[in-house]
Write a structure and sequence with these properties.
The chain is α/β, with parallel strands linked by helices. It folds into 3 domains: 215 residues, FAD/NAD(P)-binding domain; 110 residues, FAD/NAD(P)-binding domain (3-Layer(bba) Sandwich); 114 residues, FAD/NAD-linked reductase, C-terminal dimerisation domain (Enolase-like, domain 1). The chain is 33% helix and 25% strand.
Length: 467
């Protein structure tokens, strides 16, 4: 029998593949089992990367069509080549998934294709598509990084054609005349924006009366106003009760204020969240504990209830984000080898890659109030920033939440141009336990969008300059 592996990782998404690389760097003999034909998981294949490719391309199209004349650049005859746009996206995905293959080879990580199943202590069986066991891997440690899968709502059956998830919405071969999106969350806003920019009428139906609960109401209202102005028809407090596929349209049944209504759509995108993915993993066989929402239960060090079995990423609790999965993967592997890593959940930024972007970090004002934490806040609008004016992108604001007496930064929210890049400064600030004054007294280059962050920090201390 071959020597056992030090580590078998199940799943090659950003959690699994990054963990495998870190393990190899630390000298562990590592294998990674992946059921799909390509490496990279949801993120690289059908998530972060293809969606960002389409967001970027569709934004260029929208800008060429509508936005450049304000700069004195007149463009005419702008046409959409959707086939080429989709091909470009597929090319980027191919390059990046191939890149993970290259990194596996470079780090001598063994790639094993098939479904990984927990068979017994220290044994991962690998099954092919027909369910045959093709390998039985002996290992000292197992890291589960099996990610997540989309869910639907009662009465709405996904058919992969007209009623779809984000995976199919990344490759519609023509622009739907009317796209109905169920859920005004991250996917609804990103994919809704893509197709609206390319010419679809987009209606977003949200169950809750408001949206983006990880933002303070003043910030989420600003975002809602901007998206509505862009043509996204966002309707709140709407309960979708079912969909019926007709010959030439999908009928969406809904309830609003207790009244039943119907809408007709060409395509329906269901974007109401994702579930942890443990199908076929054999949790019952080995007695792996799940929580009430089907997530693998782990302790603060990513250990499951089974000795030497660890879990990270979307399949455990916490935000479903690629960078969260990566950090957890690294931390889990480092603690296996006796190091003492930690993941600071207060410093994990979230970004919605709309235009403008929306970014958040740490706690909201409401969460601080609920926990009895006294706060002060500072805001600053992009409209008063020179660089934002030069860019022609003046909508939105930065908001910083700090402790009332210590001035320590507890949270930050940004709606505005390059919000995803700007939040990085605040994430580092939170990691270093910085105060709002630390940011306010740091020199920010002029003219940059980062000056809006500085001014918001100045505003926390009541000494904003440019307003
Ligand atoms: P996954 O990436 O889901 O990978 C799990 C892997 O495990 C998959 O490859 C799966 O095939 C494999 N697997 C599952 N079970 C088994 C098994 N038993 N045996 C073998 N293999 C198995 N996050 C961001 O941070 N930024 C973004 O911009 C962003 N955009 C997104 C856009 C979309 C449309 C979607 C759907 C998601 C997006 N996300 C984004 C979320 C991000 O993709 C996930 O948080 C991230 O991929 C989770 O990583 P993971 O490694 O935990 O799991
Ligand atoms: P989400 O949790 O972001 O949003 C789901 C939305 O659907 C919520 O607003 C919710 O109130 C609403 N909803 C739930 N049930 C509903 C119903 N029956 N009718 C109408 N609305 C309903 O989920 P998502 O947009 O599907 O994204 C899934 C995950 O993928 C998220 O956890 C997200 O973090 C991740 N993701 C991240 C990014 C990014 O980081 N840029 C991009 C895409 C996806």
């Amino acid at each position: 029998m071959a020597d056992p592996y030090d580590l078998v990782v199940i799943g090659s998404g950003p959690g699994g593949y990054v963990a495998a690389i870190r393990a190899a760097q630390l000298g562990l003999r590592t294998a990674c089992v992946e059921k799909d034909a390509t490496l990279g998981g949801t993120c690289l294949n059908v998530g972060c990367i293809p969606s960002k490719a389409l967001l970027e391309s569709s934004e260029r199209f929208a800008e060429a069509k509508r936005g450049l004349s304000t700069h004195g650049v007149n463009v005419s005859g702008v046409e959409l080549d959707l086939k080429k746009m989709l091909k470009r996206k597929d090319g980027i995905v191919k390059q990046l998934t191939g890149g993970v293959d290259f990194l596996f080879k470079k780090n001598k990580i063994e790639r094993v294709q098939g479904l990984g199943r927990l068979a017994a202590t220290g044994v991962v069986e690998v099954l092919d598509a027909s369910g045959e066991v093709t390998a039985s891997l002996q290992t000292k440690n197992i890291l589960i990084a099996t990610g997540s899968a989309p869910i639907s709502v009662p009465g709405v059956t996904l058919d992969g054609e007209q009623v779809v998830t984000s995976t199919e919405a990344l490759c519609f071969d023509e622009v739907p005349a009317h796209l109905v999106v169920i859920g005004a969350g991250v996917i609804g806003l990103e994919m809704g924006s893509v197709w609206a920019r390319l010419g679809a009428k987009v209606t977003i139906l949200e169950y809750l009366p408001t949206f983006l609960p990880f933002l303070d109401p003043d910030v989420s209202k600003t975002a809602a106003k901007i998206f509505k102005k862009q043509g996204l028809d966002m309707q709140f407090g709407v309960k979708v009760t079912g969909t019926t596929v007709r010959e030439d349209a999908v009928e969406v049944s809904l309830e609003r204020d207790g009244e039943a209504e119907t809408l007709l759509a060409d395509k329906v995108l269901v974007a109401v969240g994702r579930r942890p993915y443990t199908d076929g993993l054999g949790c019952e066989t080995v007695g792996l504990e799940l929580d009430e929402r089907g997530r693998i239960r782990v302790d603060g060090g990513f250990k499951t209830n089974i000795p030497r079995v660890w879990a990270i990423g979307d399949v455990i609790a916490g935000p479903m984000l690629a960078h969260k999965a990566e950090e957890e993967g690294v931390a889990a592997v480092e603690s296996m080898t006796g190091l003492a890593p930690h993941v600071n959940y207060a410093a994990i930024p979230g970004v919605i890659y709309t235009h403008p972007e929306v970014a958040n970090l740490g706690r909201t004002s409401a969460e601080c109030e609920r926990d009895g934490v006294p706060i002060k806040t500072g805001t600053f609008p992009f409209a008063a920033n020179g660089r934002a004016k030069a860019l022609g992108e003046t909508e939105g604001l930065v908001k910083i939440i700090a402790h009332e007496t210590t001035d320590r930064i507890l949270g930050a929210q940004i709606v505005g141009p390059r919000a995803g890049a700007l939040i990085a400064e605040l994430a580092v600030a939170v990691e270093f336990s910085a105060s709002a004054e630390d940011i306010a007294r740091s020199v920010h280059a002029h003219p940059t969008l980062a000056e809006v962050v500085k001014e918001a920090a100045l505003d926390v201390g009541g000494r904003v300059i440019h307003r």
